[in-house]
């Protein structure tokens, strides 16, 4: 009563506090902000963001993801740890590929840029076509290719970054996928098959890739499934069974 102006001011502040969402804490925000500033900023903001809803990032460079200059002083082991630790919290596929293995994959991709992959389903398999475009590997379901041809949309893109290959001996990989059609386990299965078929030491396995590209009339779909079953991927990646990210 003696100070009505002060009373009204206090009531306004009280109402503002009530309007704040449950769990809101300015002090908590401040602490998080300071922690972020104290931590080395290896990765760019907006990682994995797409150019538009439902579209994949065009010309996705390593610089748009990783602070390349900052990690140049790091060893290959340290960069691997940074990359894996960061992406382990992301709902995506990622890998660090040894330079010699990527060299083999890349050389083979030049002469055999496409292949047919089999994705285990509850009943049987669903086939996907993988097509290399530079260091990007685009996947779409076989049914899309059959019905839409060259206009078939990508449902998964694996991005390979050889920026550190010569200096550090590693190639970084991550991905974007259309979550309406694929889950991370599906994308991981397809990514594992790329190394199975393109980085294999078994001539019989890579012969399937060569046949698909150069003697398509001789190619048999079931040969891919047989190779998956023999490698263990077909059994290990059945729906409902866990698979580790690489």
Automatic annotation (TrEMBL):
UniProt entry keywords in alphabetical sequence: Mitochondrion, Transit peptide
Compartments reported by the entry: Mitochondrion
Main location: mitochondrion
A GO-annotated cellular component: mitochondrion
Keyword Transit peptide among record annotations: yes
Family annotation (InterPro entries): ATP11
Region (Disordered): 1-23
Lineage: superkingdom: Eukaryota
UniProt feature, compositional bias: Basic and acidic residues: 7-19
Any Pfam family: ATP11
GO biological process: mitochondrial proton-transporting ATP synthase complex assembly
Record has Mitochondrion as a keyword: yes
PANTHER family the UniProt entry points to: ATP SYNTHASE MITOCHONDRIAL F1 COMPLEX ASSEMBLY FACTOR 1, CHAPERONE ATP11
Similarity comment text for this entry: Belongs to the ATP11 family.
Protein name: ATPF1 factor
Phylogenetic placement of the source organism: Eukaryota, Metazoa, Chordata, Craniata, Vertebrata
């Amino acid at each position: 009563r003696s100070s009505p102006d002060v009373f009204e001011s206090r009531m306004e502040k009280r109402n503002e506090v009530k309007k704040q969402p449950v769990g809101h804490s300015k002090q908590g925000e401040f602490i998080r902000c300071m922690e972020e500033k104290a931590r080395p900023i290896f990765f760019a903001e907006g990682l994995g963001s797409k150019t538009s809803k439902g579209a994949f990032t065009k010309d996705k460079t390593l610089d748009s993801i990783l602070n390349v200059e900052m990690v140049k002083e790091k060893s290959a082991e340290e960069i691997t740890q940074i990359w894996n630790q960061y992406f382990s919290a992301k709902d995506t596929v990622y890998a660090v590929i040894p330079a010699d293995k990527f060299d083999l994959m890349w050389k083979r991709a030049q002469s055999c840029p496409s292949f047919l992959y089999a994705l285990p389903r509850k009943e049987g398999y669903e086939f996907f076509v993988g097509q290399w475009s530079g260091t990007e590997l685009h996947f779409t379901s076989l049914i899309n290719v059959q019905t839409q041809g060259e206009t078939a949309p990508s449902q998964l893109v694996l991005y390979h970054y050889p920026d550190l290959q010569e200096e550090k001996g590693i190639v970084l990989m991550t991905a974007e996928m259309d979550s309406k059609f694929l889950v991370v386990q599906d994308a991981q299965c397809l990514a594992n098959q790329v190394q199975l078929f393109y980085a294999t030491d078994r001539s019989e396995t890579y012969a399937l890739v060569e046949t698909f590209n150069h003697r398509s009339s001789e190619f048999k779909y079931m040969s891919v499934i047989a190779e998956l079953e023999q490698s263990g991927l077909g059994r290990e990646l059945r729906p409902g069974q866990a698979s580790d990210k690489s």
